[in-house]
Structure formats: structure tokens, C-alpha cells
């Protein structure tokens, strides 16, 4: 590859370097697909762009597999130094002020706002009091999108169900949710008693989550006749409220419809499961005063 000088480092270069690091950490384009949320062909194009920008071959890919070149290993080491320098600069600027300043990016799964243990809400309140000039950027996303945002550096912290931990992330358990099987007031089961057996329930259409589930949650859904899926809990609620489906929801989220007599739990003593909600950060993250204060506020 033709040698060339790098005139300047742009935001696009930093993006390409972050993609390169994730690919290198994963060991292949295919393994990095799910974390980056893009196809192997797109990853290949990004890698080619980076190699053209730097004027050197960074990795070998093909039938023989994926391997970093000597230049690739050097660039990976230098990019770690660059990212650390950028983060250190941000923190040094923060330390010049009495109050915390800067951006704080947090990703949260839908429908946690009705959770009575308001640890996230209280921690955000404490963060705002500590640093009124902090710009809080809160996005509602799926668990997979939050994990990708943490891995590529777009998010500082996420809040999501603890199902199958990703090796590159750290998890702090916050609280447990209890989910029950619900039907709406339009459904034939609404007027029935709570003696429904598995065979009876299998006669009705049910909705299942399309996101990752624990073994206990999978077992509960295997008893049902799942003919629809939803990407989040709000989607499950939409389908339950049609009167055509039954499905599991966290009790704190379903309570708004139970209070209006629009939903009821089916055999709640038997048909329920627990799941943990966790605060998630990237392993090996650089020191960040805003994030550390937020995590401290969560634990308090």
C-alpha cells in the first residue's frame, strides 16, 4: 500500500479507529457485527477507508482468517494512546471547574420510569444538582442498541435487563422486576378464573419478546402459543390491549391498565418470573468524573 502522510485527525478518523479497535478485540468482522450493528461488508468498507487514510495495511482477512499486521498492532496501540489523551483532556477541562461540566450520555430501555425503586431517577436528580451545567443526553433504546452504544463509546452508561452478559461490559445490579402474564378486558380469559392450565393457555395466541431472555423467561414463553413478537415492553402492551394476545409485562408497567380495569394477571401465583435490571458500563473505561458520580449516586 502506498505510503502517505496523515495531514490531520478528523472526527471520522476517530470513528474508524473505534471500529478498528472493536474488530481487533472481537477477532473477526463477523464477531464484531452484532456489537457494531452493521454488516460485515460495511465493516470491510470502513476498514478499507481507514487503511487508505493511514496508507498502510492494518489486517489480513480472507479464507485464512483475520489477523493484524505489524502495522495494525502498532496503530491499535497508538489509537489507544490517542483515545486516552482525548479523554484525559476532557477530564482535565472538567477539573478546571468547581462544578462538573460536559456531556453525559445514558441509554435506558423503555418503561423503566414506572419502576417504584427510582434509583435511576434519583441518581439523575443528584447529578443535576451536583453539575447544573452537565448536558444530559438520555436515549430510550433496546438492550442490544444500548450495548452497541457502550462498546463504541457513544454511551457512558446504560440501564437494561441482565440476561446474558457481554464480555466487554461491566454490570451493576440495581433492582429486580417481577413480570406476570396478562390479558386485556377484551380477551376471553379476562372473565375466567385463575385455574387456567398450560393446555388451556396454549389455545390462545400470545406475544413473545424478540430481545434476549433468561432461561426462566424462555421456559415461561414455551408454555404459550406465541404467534407474535415485540421488540420492547411497550410493543407487548400494544398487542395485549388488542384483546387478541396474552403476554408477560412487568407489574409496575401493567399497573396503569390494571387500575383502569383494562388488564388482569392470569394465574399470578403460578405464572410469573423475576428479572434483574442493571447499570452497565464498558470494561476498561477511562476515568470520567461525571460517570463516577452518577454510579456513586446509584449505589446510594
UniProtKB/TrEMBL annotation:
<dbReference type="InterPro" id="IPR036390">
    <property type="entry name" value="WH_DNA-bd_sf"/>
</dbReference>
<dbReference type="Pfam" id="PF00126">
    <property type="entry name" value="HTH_1"/>
</dbReference>
<dbReference type="InterPro" id="IPR036388">
    <property type="entry name" value="WH-like_DNA-bd_sf"/>
</dbReference>
<dbReference type="InterPro" id="IPR000847">
    <property type="entry name" value="LysR_HTH_N"/>
</dbReference>
<dbReference type="InterPro" id="IPR005119">
    <property type="entry name" value="LysR_subst-bd"/>
</dbReference>
<protein>
    <submittedName>
        <fullName>LuxR family transcriptional regulator</fullName>
    </submittedName>
</protein>
<feature type="domain" description="HTH lysR-type">
    <location>
        <begin position="12"/>
        <end position="69"/>
    </location>
</feature>
<dbReference type="GO" id="GO:0000976">
    <property type="term" value="F:transcription cis-regulatory region binding"/>
</dbReference>
<comment type="similarity">
    <text>Belongs to the LysR transcriptional regulatory family.</text>
</comment>
<keyword id="KW-0804">Transcription</keyword>
<dbReference type="GO" id="GO:0003700">
    <property type="term" value="F:DNA-binding transcription factor activity"/>
</dbReference>
<dbReference type="Pfam" id="PF03466">
    <property type="entry name" value="LysR_substrate"/>
</dbReference>
<keyword id="KW-0238">DNA-binding</keyword>
<keyword id="KW-0805">Transcription regulation</keyword>
Amino acid at each position: 500500500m502506498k505510503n502517505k502522510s496523515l495531514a490531520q485527525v478528523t472526527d471520522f478518523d476517530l470513528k474508524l479507529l473505534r471500529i478498528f479497535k472493536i474488530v481487533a478485540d472481537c477477532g473477526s468482522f463477523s464477531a464484531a457485527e452484532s456489537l457494531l450493528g452493521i454488516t460485515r461488508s460495511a465493516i470491510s468498507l470502513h476498514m478499507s477507508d481507514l487503511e487508505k487514510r493511514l496508507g498502510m495495511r492494518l489486517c489480513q482477512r480472507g479464507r485464512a482468517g483475520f489477523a493484524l499486521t505489524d502495522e495494525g498492532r502498532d496503530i491499535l496501540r497508538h489509537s489507544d494512546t490517542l483515545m486516552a489523551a482525548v479523554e484525559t483532556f476532557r477530564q482535565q477541562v472538567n477539573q478546571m471547574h468547581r462544578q462538573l461540566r460536559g456531556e453525559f450520555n445514558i441509554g435506558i430501555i423503555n418503561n423503566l420510569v414506572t419502576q417504584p425503586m427510582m434509583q435511576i431517577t434519583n441518581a439523575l436528580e443528584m447529578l443535576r444538582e451536583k453539575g447544573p451545567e452537565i448536558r444530559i443526553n438520555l436515549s430510550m433504546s433496546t438492550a442490544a442498541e444500548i450495548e452497541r452504544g457502550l462498546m463504541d463509546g457513544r454511551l457512558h452508561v446504560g440501564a437494561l435487563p441482565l440476561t446474558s452478559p457481554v464480555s466487554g461490559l461491566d454490570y451493576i445490579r440495581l433492582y429486580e422486576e417481577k413480570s406476570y402474564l396478562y390479558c386485556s378486558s377484551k380477551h376471553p380469559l379476562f372473565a375466567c378464573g385463575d385455574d387456567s392450565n398450560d393446555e388451556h393457555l396454549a389455545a390462545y395466541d400470545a406475544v413473545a419478546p424478540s430481545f434476549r431472555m433468561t432461561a426462566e423467561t424462555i421456559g415461561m414463553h414455551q408454555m404459550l402459543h406465541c404467534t407474535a413478537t415485540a421488540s420492547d415492553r411497550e410493543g407487548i402492551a400494544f398487542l395485549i390491549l388488542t384483546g387478541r394476545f396474552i403476554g408477560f409485562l412487568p407489574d409496575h408497567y401493567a399497573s396503569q391498565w390494571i387500575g383502569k380495569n383494562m388488564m388482569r394477571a392470569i394465574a399470578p401465583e403460578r405464572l410469573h418470573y423475576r428479572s434483574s435490571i442493571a447499570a452497565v458500563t464498558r470494561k476498561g473505561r477511562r476515568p470520567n468524573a461525571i460517570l463516577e458520580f452518577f454510579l456513586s449516586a446509584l449505589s446510594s
